[in-house]
Amino acid sequence: MFAPVVRLASKKLLEIHQVFYQPPHASGSFSTALNYHIDSPDNNPDIPWEFSEANKEKVKEILSHYPSNYKQSAVIPLLDLAQQQHGGWLPVSAMNAVAKIVEVAPIRVYEVATFYSMFNQSKVGKYHLLVCGTAPCMIRGSREIEEALLKHLGVKRNEVTKDGMFSVGEMECMGCCVNAPMITVVDYSKGSEGYTYDYYEDVTPKRVVEIVEMLRRGETPPVGTQNPLRIKSGPEGGNTTLLSEPKSPPCRDLDAC
Ligand code: FES
To answer: Name one GO molecular function term (predicted).
Structure first.
């Protein structure tokens, strides 16, 4: 009776392991389907990691925003700074360094880093392109946008191009649905000093490829709406209602009361 139960339990455990574990890519990095850390030659706790001298000053500044007995509140901005410094992703030793600074067990930092999708646990490109995949952007063609990017760059989602320049990820609503579909370009090419996180809105499959090529040439494409007929979030072609000067609200005649 006992042996079959053990056999069944082992089989189930093996199935679970197979679902969660994916072998390394040819490049040596792990699939993002892997949602827990396994030591690898380029990502293990024995690799030394610390904030740069310039960023050590920023760490002090960030910590100064919180009471000294609540240092752990600084975990998100510190992880963000670590990710910027490390070219867009967080090796386990960077997370351990943050845990040491905020004086918590490393697991507390891993919990935060793995919960928020803006933190990457594997390498990304110097330009990480995030396609919004939520309903308004999807209805306006975000799948075609992603397909165009992946095809043009010759990668799968979350893979990095061979030259290390680009990767394509997906994010949920980034809060500019009025300009759907949109992508974000996260620029890790200049470390934490030149880090930018820019929105490109009202994009088309053709336009996102143009944006990629401009970035490749070292140009900075104009951010915001890519539709020349719109001004920011205004209607295409200009206003069609509320065309006259707004009237001031009627004032109450207090003397007549
Ligand atoms: S759904 Fe894409 S920005 Fe909101």
So the answer is: oxidoreductase activity
Domain boundaries, the chain: 12-115, 127-225
Residue 96, classified by CB atoms within 10 Å of its CB into exposed (0-12), middle (13-18) or buried (19+), is: middle
Mutating to test ligand 1, I would choose from 117, 139, 140, 173 the residue with most ligand atoms within 8 A of its C-beta, which is: 173
User: Is residue 137 part of an annotated ligand binding site?
Assistant: yes
Q: How far apart are CA 233 and CA 158, in angstroms?
A: 30
Q: Is 132 annotated as a binding residue?
A: yes
Q: How confident is the model at residue 29 (pLDDT cuts 50, 70, 90)?
A: very low
Query: Looking at domain 127-225, does it have CATH number 3.40.50.620?
Result: no
Whole-number Å distance, alpha carbon 145 to ligand 1 midpoint, is 13
* Residues within a 6 A CB radius of ligand 1: 132, 134, 136-137, 173-177, 180, 182
Can you tell me whether residue 19 is helix, strand or coil?
helix
Tokens 């809105």 belong to: 201
Which residue's structure tokens are 């949602």? 35
